[in-house]
Amino acid sequence: MKSQTGGAMSMRLGVLHGKSSKQKLDVKISTEAELVGVSDYLPCNIWLLMLMRAQVYLIIDNILYQDNQSIMLMLTNGRNSYTGNSRHVNIRYFFAKDRVDKKRVKVEYCSTIWMLADFFTKPLQGQLFIKFREVIIVYKTISTLR
């Protein structure tokens, strides 16, 4: 199964960076696809954080919002969260877990209806599309999603 992965970085006012791409490898389960997506986006996040710090912006929180609670458990508990279906997940995707362990990224739950990165990966319609579009073009702040 190849899936679409995406991510967006915000400084609480619109979108600073957005990315959407087709995953380059096959995965067996959707949980693994989410983990691959997180692993693919984190290098962009790290680069942008270093750029912002070089520009003397104070970055207080680096929060990774996730709507998949299985991934949240894997990122915080590591191998203790494995089940029979996810035991095959390759260790190289625990790059994200290493960032969480070093407290460089916090993982927080975000309901699917507030997940801004879905704008880049899913066909949205109606009010949800309009709400996400307004945040992305910085017409409204990201706090309006809640």
SSE inventory with pairings:
Layout: E1 4-9, E2 17-22, H1 30-54, E3 63-66, H2 69-77, H3 95-101, E4 106-109, H4 118-121, H5 126-136
Parallel strand pairs: 3-4
Antiparallel strand pairs: 1-2
Describe this structure in words.
By secondary structure, the protein is α+β, with helices and mostly antiparallel strands. The protein contains five helices and four strands, in the order ββαβααβαα. The strands form two sheets. Strands 1-2 form a two-stranded antiparallel ribbon. Strands 3-4 form a two-stranded parallel ribbon. Helix 2 (69-77) crosses helix 3. It is globular. The model has no long low-confidence stretch (mean pLDDT 76).
Total number of helices: 5
- What's the order of the H and E elements? EEHEHHEHH
Biggest beta sheet attributes: 2 strands, antiparallel
Number of structural units classed as domains: 1
Overall outline: globular
Strand content: 5-15%
The radius of gyration computed from the alpha-carbon positions, rounded to a whole number of angstroms, is 15 Å
What level of helicity do the residues show? 25-40%
